[in-house]
Every structure is written in structure tokens, then in C-alpha cells.
Amino acid sequence: MGDGDTGVLVAAERRLAAETGVTRRRDLGVLAVRDLERFALVAGAPALPDGQAPPLYLSSVMGWSPGPPESELRPDGSGTDETRGLPLEGLRLMGAGQELQFHHPARAGDRVVETTTLLSVRHKSGRTGDLLLLHVRREFADGAGRPLVTCDETFVAR
Questions:
Q1: Gene3D superfamilies, alphabetically (predicted)?
Q2: Fewer C-beta within 10 Å: the chain N or C terminus?
């Protein structure tokens, strides 16, 4: 990793450290039957009763908007909507695992609210150079506040 890359990583670590513990809330809208059916089809998930969402649906959807123009994509191909509102300018992001807790099933017609908190950021030296490990918690609830899914995620940022 060159000196310029190290500087970008150090600056990002400082920005992210300032965001540790900050919780962001976002209304994701109402779950549509068509979206749940499409997800189940491509994921090979069985049909579920009463418009129930496949269990991995909420944690798997990276972006809830139609997506940005190609010119606005980040270097790793993701849109800013997919970075959980974190200041990741100049970094490439890669998923490094999830731990899920399922509380109640989500259903078509449910309004879903997501809260996202950066729990920690850690600078680490790996085989291929320096990186940041980010630990993020996303909590999904229905419009009444009933918990649906808690998703603890680890990301590698370079």
C-alpha cells in the first residue's frame, strides 16, 4: 500500500471513529408482495404463507432506492445508499460476515424502519496491506416498533 493509500485509510479511520456509536434511522417504506416474491425466486427460497418475507430478505437488500447513475457509483461499484450512511469516501468496501437474530417475521404491507449504528472501527494490517474492520449493527422494525431482524455485520474497508 502506497503512502497516499495509507493517508486515505488513516483519514477514513478518523472520520469513522467520530461516527462510532451514532445511530441513523431510515424509513425503508412498505414491503411489496412483488419484491418479496422476486427475492424468493432468485434466492431459491420456498413460498411462505400470508405474504411473509423470506427470513434473509431485510438483511440482504443492500440498497432500497432505484440506484444511482453509473457516474455516481463508488470505486467498489456500490451506491452511497448502500454504505449505511457512513463516511466511506475513497474506500472500497467488502462484506466479511453477518450474524442474524430473527425476532418476528416481516410481511408484505409492513412499513419497515432500519436503524444503523457503527459499533467499532479497527485498523489492521493484513497479508495484502492495511485495512479497516468495521462492525455495524442494523436493526429492522415494523412501523409500530416491533423488532423484526437484528443484523450484526463486519466489513473490510481499503
A1: Hotdog Thioesterase (3.10.129.10)
A2: N
